[in-house]
Amino acid sequence: MGKNKELDYEILDESKVPEDVRLLLDEAKNVMKNAFAPFSKFKVGAAIRTERGNVYRGCNVENASLGGTICAERGAAMASIASEGYGRFKAIAIASGSDDPAPPCAICRQFLAQFTDPDVPVYLISVKSGVLKKFRFGVLMPYAFTEF
Question: Which of 30, 58, 71, 114 has the highest CB neighbour count under 10 A?
Fold first, then answer.
């Protein structure tokens, strides 16, 4: 639909994205329903496609200690590593109920940076408004810390 050159993202029409992207978005939206968010009421779902072509899903799981809360993005990343071992991510989709699509938090961006190249597409969709944005991971995490 259009590219915002200032913010370096594209707004897409979900009905016109390629089938593999639509399927990844559907996985993120479906797993969002399983989120456990009794405190914030903010449910998030994430789906990650790996270099092997497999898709792993995760949803946020809140904890009364707050620090024990796991975000959807890290949940999906952990599922992929547990299933395949170390690998690279090729596409990420994140669904939320906010009016504007919600990007990953800073901890998740840093976590994903270990497995995601800067040019990997990240699709953010609001199940409330239907707005779909596409970012390059490097725009969301421009100065990743990946080694020490």
Answer: 58
d(CA 136, CA 71): 20
SS3 68: coil
Catalytic residue among 62, 73, 84, 147: 73
Report how many domains make up the chain. 1
Which domain CATH number covers 116?
3.40.140.10
Q: pLDDT grade, residue 6 (50/70/90)?
A: low
Distance CA 60, CA 45 (A): 7
Residue 38 structural domain: 8-140
Total-model pTM: 0.94
Scanning 33-133, the segments in alpha helix (DSSP H) are 72-84, 106-113
Active site residue 6: no
Q: Which of 98, 106, 54 is nearest to 76 (CA)?
A: 54
